[in-house]
């Protein structure tokens, strides 16, 4: 991967981090509005918020890790076989840490349940109004939580 591409990914991760942090800030007030909704609904909402927050925290770790890898020049290297991760794969899954071959191999081994889980949650959003940025982050998060390589 050339330096220019590396820079593009770095910018992408910085943006992604910003938007994730913004989302986390925006969601905090929904934990407080207890007056209009009944308690069980509030509990459910809180549970969803906590789940989302956990995924966002997980994603932030992945993003920080990717930024760290960009700094020390190991970004885009498969952590299984030390080969380069396909650039198209990185475009689609910027936080991928395995090349396609290694990813497929790990999915054959233990991925069936995870794959089902991932396709089960795909396309569903926790809240009704999904903004494009959120959709991207959610997609990424579902990829991340479906990964076996953390
Ligand atoms: Zn590999």
Automatic annotation (TrEMBL):
Record has Zinc as a keyword: yes
Zinc finger (dksA C4-type): 78-102
Cell membrane is among the record's keywords: no
A Pfam short name: zf-dskA_traR
Top-level taxonomic group: Bacteria
Record keywords, A-Z: Metal-binding, Zinc, Zinc-finger
InterPro entries (alphabetical): DnaK_N, Znf_DskA_TraR
Positions of the Zinc finger DksA/TraR C4-type domain: 73-108
Name of the featured protein: TraR/DksA family transcriptional regulator
Organism name: Bacteriovorax antarcticus
Gene3D superfamilies per the UniProt record, alphabetical: DksA, coiled-coil domain (1.20.120.910)
